[in-house]
């Protein structure tokens, strides 16, 4: 996850460095006898806790809108607490109010942004919990969960897809499929080992579950293929979701050896699961063919 946020980390360090240089330029160092060690301990601890929040965010969350709110809200708190701590070591002239404003204003703004991000995070967790609770309830009756990714398998997808096809056709609603296929996954397993392949599958399933909506059904259709069922979703909207996933997948981990993936989206217009899966296979084959053609040397 750190690789996804390297630019955020660099900009954060530059922001804190600029605050330090501004403080040094605006004031003068206090004598050691003027230090209030109790304040230094309290403000230093607060700063470390805020830095810990930043570390947790960038180490546990993929890039996305909610992550942006959480990160920049926490960063404003870190900036405010950092300047507040510098105030214990540097004395500013009474005529200069800029440092006082920089100490005070970012904290409440950061708290508002962080709170908005936490609301989004809470919504994500509720969606994931609903999906997990549904899986747990179904697993008590049917052994249809893939043990590695904890996603439903092909049998469950076929049953739900047939039901959704009948439901959407009777109500004249839209229905789409999103297919994520890992290219040359068997070769990846041979080169890097089954453990690396299993780790990649687990990370990929977590990414799909977090990036798609709670109403979508994500399944592991085959060893190297995932299919998401998108109810009430027209093909243009499904294409936008597919493009979003294409942007997220290359940043799945810090490794540069991860296999490539092909993502396609298509509307379900067929009257049976067999025909819908055949159309998905054809769309996937065309996408792979187009990708191979685009990279073909001149």
From TrEMBL:
<dbReference type="InterPro" id="IPR043128">
    <property type="entry name" value="Rev_trsase/Diguanyl_cyclase"/>
</dbReference>
<feature type="domain" description="GGDEF">
    <location>
        <begin position="173"/>
        <end position="298"/>
    </location>
</feature>
<dbReference type="InterPro" id="IPR029787">
    <property type="entry name" value="Nucleotide_cyclase"/>
</dbReference>
<feature type="transmembrane region" description="Helical">
    <location>
        <begin position="39"/>
        <end position="57"/>
    </location>
</feature>
<dbReference type="GO" id="GO:0005886">
    <property type="term" value="C:plasma membrane"/>
</dbReference>
<keyword id="KW-0472">Membrane</keyword>
<dbReference type="GO" id="GO:0043709">
    <property type="term" value="P:cell adhesion involved in single-species biofilm formation"/>
</dbReference>
<dbReference type="GO" id="GO:0052621">
    <property type="term" value="F:diguanylate cyclase activity"/>
</dbReference>
<protein>
    <recommendedName>
        <fullName>diguanylate cyclase</fullName>
        <ecNumber>2.7.7.65</ecNumber>
    </recommendedName>
</protein>
<keyword id="KW-0812">Transmembrane</keyword>
<feature type="transmembrane region" description="Helical">
    <location>
        <begin position="98"/>
        <end position="121"/>
    </location>
</feature>
<dbReference type="InterPro" id="IPR050469">
    <property type="entry name" value="Diguanylate_Cyclase"/>
</dbReference>
<dbReference type="GO" id="GO:1902201">
    <property type="term" value="P:negative regulation of bacterial-type flagellum-dependent cell motility"/>
</dbReference>
<dbReference type="Pfam" id="PF00990">
    <property type="entry name" value="GGDEF"/>
</dbReference>
<keyword id="KW-1133">Transmembrane helix</keyword>
<dbReference type="InterPro" id="IPR000160">
    <property type="entry name" value="GGDEF_dom"/>
</dbReference>
<feature type="transmembrane region" description="Helical">
    <location>
        <begin position="69"/>
        <end position="86"/>
    </location>
</feature>
